[in-house]
Amino acid sequence: DTSLGEVNSFSPSMPISPASMINQYKFEDEPELRDLFITVDDPESHITAIETFITYRVVTKTSRGEFDSSEYEVRRRYQDFLWLKSKLEEAHPTLIIPPLPEKFIMKGMVERFNEEFIETRRKALHKFLNRIADHPTLTFNEDFKIFLTAQAWELSSHKKQGPGLLSRMGQTVRAVASSVRGGVKNRPEMFTEMNHYMETFSQKIIVLDKIAHRIYKEEREYFNEMKEYGPIHTLWSASEEDIADSLKGVASCIDKCCKATEKRMAGLSENLLPILHEYVLYSEILMGVLKRRDQIQGELDSRIDTLANKKAEKDLFSDEIGKLEDKVECANNALKADWDRWKQNMQHDMRSTFTNVAENNLRYYEECLATWESFLASQTVNLHVEEDSEDRP
């Protein structure tokens, strides 16, 4: 695996041409034998006396035997997705649960219930469910199946069967107690390395996310100014007969570049920004998963310390320690497998995203360059024609 440090270094053997750099990466999308297909679409607004909210249609098609039908269609609101995520975290504390979009959009982006916001959220919810469907363990979770198949009243009834307040309080108390005890004594080296990796990854991805948003903002400002720049040349041409054609040509070039810029902005907002922000959220999730693993390890360490101080109850504690050792082993194995899978997906997503951005940038600059070169060529031809006409007797 390429370390984060190595990503910032450039090998002298790397090709200079951007196009040849892009050609290094060929992604072989081999068809997989999938048996679960999920689509999130058709957002619908609901207004009640108490609140206003959006529901989304979730369509599921499957060939799995554990489903009673091959196709389901239900409507879900954001709160239902939050419930599913919490149930998955509860059932699989050391697996990496995909992130959900935040409840409220970041300041400076778009307003809640704005069409752009709703569409951005719809795409994120669609990706959330499909990442779960593609996960080798999460895809068979019973709550996930209920989320996909149960009607609204059935899901509401199922939610009420969750852990009670006292149970949730107990989990919170254990988490706080674990954090108070301090660091884990016997944490395996690989999990310490994971913590260090995620701390570095989190810092890098947050910076990239901020820079990408700043680039997008500057690009939008440039686009808005360029939209005003072209028409000025058209107006100018009306008062300058001798250079009217040239001014109209400049206005046409600016208009074409404006459209190319708009297309590039769409590529940034649809491909780069969502991926970077998704992995900002993933970094928070990974840190939470590692903390939960440490809590399980902390329970084992606590019992071993207690056993050392209570020789008389050795047999009773030995039994409990055996169960905790099994629990830690299961947690470690689950996280190890999911870590490798997540890291592979992350590297593929990042490589694919940045390659896509590079290709879009190449197309953008080639398109703008061709536009202006064509204009200059036409002006050169016109200039030669005028010179020839002047030289004739």
TrEMBL record:
Pfam families tied to this protein: PX
Keywords: Protein transport, Transport
GO CC annotation terms, alphabetical: early endosome; phagophore assembly site
Listed name of the protein: SNX7 protein
GO MF, one example: phosphatidylinositol binding
Keyword Protein transport: yes
Domain PX intervals: 34-155
Domain of life: Eukaryota
Cross-referenced PROSITE patterns: PX
The keyword Transport belongs to this UniProt entry's keyword annotation: yes
Any one GO biological process: endocytic recycling
The family this protein is said to belong to: Belongs to the sorting nexin family.
InterPro entries xref list: AH/BAR_dom_sf, BAR_SNX7, PX_dom, PX_dom_sf, PX_SNX7
